[in-house]
Amino acid sequence: MDHIAEDVGLGPSGLVGKANSIQHLLDYLKEEEQVDHDYFKLCKVSDKLKKIIKNCNKERKRLEREKRDMRLGEGVEYDDKVLEFLEGEKVEERLKEVLSHEVIDEEEAILLRRVAMCRLMYGNYQRSGTVKNIEMEEYRNRIKSEEHDVILVKNHKTKDRYGSAKVVCKKETVEVIEKYLEYAPESKYLFVTRTGHQVANPFRELENLCIQMGHQAIKISPTEHRKQSASRVELGRDEKMTLKISQMMDHSIDTHRAKYTFVNTAKEAIGAYKTLQDWRHSQHTKKEQKIEECEDREREVRRKRKWTMAETREIERVMERKKGKFTRLHEVKEEFKENEILKDRTFKNILDKLRQIQK
User: Fold this and answer.
1) Cβ-based neighbours of 154, under 8 Å, separated by 6 or more
2) Does a structural domain hold residue 186?
3) CA-based torsion, 260, 263, 268, 269: positive or negative
4) Which single residue of 3, 14, 16, 34 could bond 60 by disulfide (Cβ 3.0 to 4.6 Å)?
5) Which stretches of the chain are assigned E, i.e. beta strand?
6) 14 SS3 class
7) Which residues fall within 8 angstroms of residue 249, CB to CB, at 6 or more apart?
8) 139 and 43, same structural domain?
């Protein structure tokens, strides 16, 4: 069975992602004519094959986790020559103003900005339209423009290219990130899409909340959310922020209305997040109350349970050995804390019994 697995490439670079089930793999083996009909039947009931599939699925999940972690911003460095704007004092001052409700030092401010930019670059599954190879002409032209910032990204993986790349962002984008941090400091979804800068995607966050909270959260789909947002766009506030982003990308008003999530919906995500925290706290409190109630019931049952002959004899034996009266609870604790026969009795229960015998 092992050599068959090796032949068909079972492993991280082989059938990982394809072998979703035993039957799927068996069909694959049959098509490739790697086994005859009798051996095919044997494989069908083989525990070894099931184990191989299980390991493959584990490996696939591990690889997916690694890719997800990478999208959230690991392995990012800045090119000092082309990032003078990001290194400047103005950005530090603006970031500190945005985060003025917290006390932060210089290192923490840099870290927060770095995290924000990483999330902008890695938050989406699609390849960004602003990511270019260093050899490409458009990339070289855009570097020369004073209106753009260039960020060096290491380990930026896409379907058609592995290795380092550079992301070109307009300076206004950095301002938008800082503005968004003011709205939703806990949000993880700042990203760039192929169709343009999509500043916030709170329905993913709400979707996760729905999964965790079950029926206690309102489930809302991206399409439904866009329709609701489009009906509010004439109010002015939503349109003002998103129109600014659309203008950066030279999009029409129709594209802007169809494609963008409005920034102030991030407040809804934060509200849902706080609701989740309150719900978790209430669940934890309920759990503690249930534990206390169970313990109280157990103590009551132990107190009312009739004394067995063995327990009574054990108490009498201890009294004879001590040759004295037990009048204090701490005396009972010292004497009976390691007594196996009376381990199901409370110390108060034992003291009551002692007083009853001593009378």
Assistant:
1) 75, 76, 77, 164
2) no
3) positive
4) 16
5) 131-132, 148-153, 165-170, 191-193, 196-198
6) coil
7) 196, 197
8) no
Q: Are the beta carbons of 354 and 336 closer than 8 angstroms? A: no
Are the CB atoms for 329 and 347 separated by under 8 Å? yes
Question: Do 8 and 28 contact (CB within 8 A), yes or no?
Answer: yes
CB-CB neighbours of 200 under 10 Å? 26
Q: Categorise residue 308: left if φ over 0, alpha if ψ from -120 to 50, beta otherwise.
A: beta
> How many structural domains comprise the chain?
4
Both 228 and 263 in one domain: the answer is yes
Compute the distance between CA of residue 212 and CA of residue 217 in angstroms, rounded to an integer: 9
Domain closes at, from 24, 45, 69:
69
Q: What per-residue string of b and e applies to 91-123 under the rule 16 or more CB within 10 Å gives b?
A: beebbeebbeeeeeeeeebbebbbbbbbbbbbb
Pairing verdict, β 148-153 and 165-170: antiparallel
Long-range residue pairs from 323-331, CB within 8 A, at least 24 positions apart, any chain? 325/354, 325/358, 326/351, 326/354, 326/355, 326/358
Residue numbers of the domain that contains 247: 195-289
Token pair belonging to 270: 């934060």
- Which one-letter DSSP state was computed for residue 154? T
> CB of 198 within 8 A of CB of 191?
yes
187 within a domain of the structure (yes/no): no
d(CA 267, CA 112): 20
Cα–Cα distance between 209 and 203 in angstroms, integer? 9
CA distance 74 to 63: 15
